[in-house]
Amino acid sequence: MVKQSAPEQLIPKRLSRATPMGLVAASRFPLGDRKTMANGIRALDADIVLGSLAPVAYKPVKVCGVELKLEPLSPALGTVVHGIDLDRDLGQAKMVQFLRELWLERRVIMFRDQQHLTRDGLIQFAECFGELGAHHGERDHIPSGLQTPEGYPDVLPIQSGEKHPGAASEWHSDATWSSRPPMGSVLICREAPPIGGDTNFCDGYGLWEGVRDETKERIQGLKAIHVGQPHHAMDGRLPMATHPVARTHPETGKTVLFVNRVFTRRFAKEHGMDEAVTQSLLQELFANIGRPEITCRFRWGPGSVAMWDNRAVQHCATADFWPHRRLMERVTILDSDVERRTPYLAD
Ligand SMILES: [Fe+2]
Known about the structure:
Bound molecules: fe (ii) ion
CATH superfamily of the domain at 133-347: Clavaminate synthase-like
CATH class of the domain at 133-347: Alpha Beta
CATH topology of the domain at 133-347: Double-stranded beta-helix
Radius of gyration: 21 Å
Distance between the termini: 68 Å
Order of helices and strands: HHEEEHEHEEEEHHEEEEEHEEEE
Shape: globular
Largest sheet: 9 strands, mixed
Number of helices: 7
Strand content: 15-25%
Structural class: alpha+beta
Helix content: 10-25%
């Protein structure tokens, strides 16, 4: 019988400095092999994280008899809703409506200490706002290599740890390679690193406002092609979709710049742009993505939940937490109004 090598033996001895995760690790503890670095960083973190406290500014509101505290994360976007139990307090339509309006206004809303929320609870929460999607939104494209928890085919586990470092650390909106990308995504943290691994959100309206007037004119009516990554392939086929570069948000009516560095590759053939023009325009459109003034940053703890509007924000993880574990679960939400799922630019 041929003895198969354990997966651990395939793990490289050194962490690649070419990744953000690797460069942060190397800058913090440059010496030794992977294991030595991991132990060194753990010792550093044990020394710098001994307790927790944070100054918090908030606005109190009472909704359906529940006292909430709304903590803005930045002027531009992001609000943490304190004082709510997502398992218990969403029974009333008025509470759901309140959260939806807050979500539309602030693009992303977060909650803390929801450890008790089971996968069923997470799904029920998502279904308050639309139709439950598959891991990447629509059910017509399910990546072949995907592994989901037993009994929960729509829950996408996102895991990272010492042996498998990784995080979606480039700015993107979820599954824009789909012709009908998910309206929203909900992420719950099951296990958080002691420090690091924050998720950042960038305001799509702010990105549009940052485009120069002459470029705005040029890109009105322009369409871009979004291509999935190899791990999104289904039966060897990479997913691909064409979307307007300027997108009208179907609920707020505002315009969003709808291109991202991960999936947007080029412009539609009909525009006849050569490679040099394409790259120059893409770089111009990408330039403001991640500017601190139009972003907010959310620190995760066990049971933290974030729900973001994929039509209005881009997001990325901060890949700075190796060798710690970071375990997340994500579900997506599709707009209940099927007509609104395909991105469009209104006249
Ligand atoms: Fe994502």
